[in-house]
Design goal:
Helix content: 25-40%
CATH superfamily: P-loop containing nucleotide triphosphate hydrolases
Largest sheet: 6 strands, mixed
Oligomer: single chain
Order of helices and strands: EEEHEEHEEHHEHEHEEEH
Bound molecules: adenosine-5'-triphosphate, magnesium ion
CATH topology: Rossmann fold
Strand order of the largest sheet: 6-9-10-3-11-12
Number of domains: 1
């Protein structure tokens, strides 16, 4: 039986009383790639942040990597447990060169300095990262270059559970194929990959074992790769109507003339 790499049970998260995750259940076994798709604002990035241990959320429920509970672990301890998050919006770290970050991180995760340098050299050649190594992390990189840098980092650090938050957004068509190829190469029986995406294009290259649909802070449907095709064809409304879900109604009122002015010079 396959071992569960990432297990999430009844995960809730809120910020200042606003509920964002409303009971997420998810299991990704080692060796599998799972995709999460969902409309904007449905909680996908929040799930990634909460798994990685970002502060600021009130969290309840269970999360584990290879049976190790993440709940009481700091961010670096979750990384040591084997978790890696590739960010939807990678941030720049002025003054810290990518090569230095990666060598320190690989050593902190258990590689010897020699092995760390070897891994960096190998992946640098493979992913064509030479010109980024001695620049600060994400400093003045284009959107697509930042995504490539995220893939480079995970290739060097060899995590066991990869949470990839829109690794394909902002990539040109050739880069999507290359990045997907790099992810496919990393795919093995010792790794689990959770891939968040809006587009089925990348799923043509990294074929997922399961596709989950997240709406309004919950996984509402799971299935094989054909779910991504259904989304591509009919959008989220097709999924909603198949599941008998109604779109939450937003309270509306008839707009008044003053709504169309940002600075109304007189009372209406
Ligand atoms: N710190 C916060 N304070 C207030 N609201 C937040 C906070 N973090 C997230 N949210 C809200 O939670 C909801 C889910 O956000 P999240 O970034 O997880 O969505 P997403 O599914 O990743 O969307 P996208 O596809 O656009 O990336 C959004 O409505 C967002 O505004
Ligand atoms: Mg997001």
């Amino acid at each position: 039986m396959s071992r569960t790499a990432l297990q999430v049970r009844g995960l809730h998260a809120s910020v200042g009383g606003l509920a964002i995750l409303k009971g997420v259940d998810l299991e990704v076994p080692f060796g599998e790639v799972h995709a999460i798709m969902g409309p904007n604002g449905s909680g996908k990035s929040t799930l990634c942040h909460v798994l990685a241990g970002k502060s600021g959320y009130e969290v309840s429920g269970a999360m584990a990597v290879d049976g190790v509970s993440l709940a009481d672990l700091d961010v670096y301890q979750r990384a040591q447990a084997g978790l890696f998050q590739a960010f939807q919006y990678p941030v720049g770290i002025p003054g810290l060169d990518l090569a230095v970050l990666l060598e320190e991180a690989a050593v902190a995760l258990g590689a010897g300095p020699e092995e760390a340098r070897e891994r960096i050299a190998t992946q640098t050649r493979r992913l064509g990262m030479e010109r980024f190594l001695n620049r600060s992390v994400n400093g003045d990189l284009s959107g697509g270059e930042k995504k490539r840098s995220e893939v480079f980092q995970l290739a060097v650090l060899e995590p066991r559970v990869m949470v990839l938050d829109e690794i394909d957004s902002g990539l040109d068509i050739d880069s999507v194929r290359e990045v997907a190829g790099a992810v496919e190469e990393i795919r093995s029986g010792e790794v689990a990959i959770l891939m968040i995406t809006h587009y089925s294009r990348i799923l043509n290259y990294v074929r997922p074992d399961r596709v989950h649909i997240m709406m309004n802070g919950q996984i509402v449907d799971s299935g094989g790769p054909e779910l991504a095709d259904e989304l591509e064809d009919g959008g989220y409304s097709a999924v909603r109507s198949r599941l008998g879900m109604t779109v939450p109604k937003v309270a509306t009122r008839t707009p008044s003339v003053s709504d169309f002015f940002t600075d109304t010079p007189f009372d209406l």
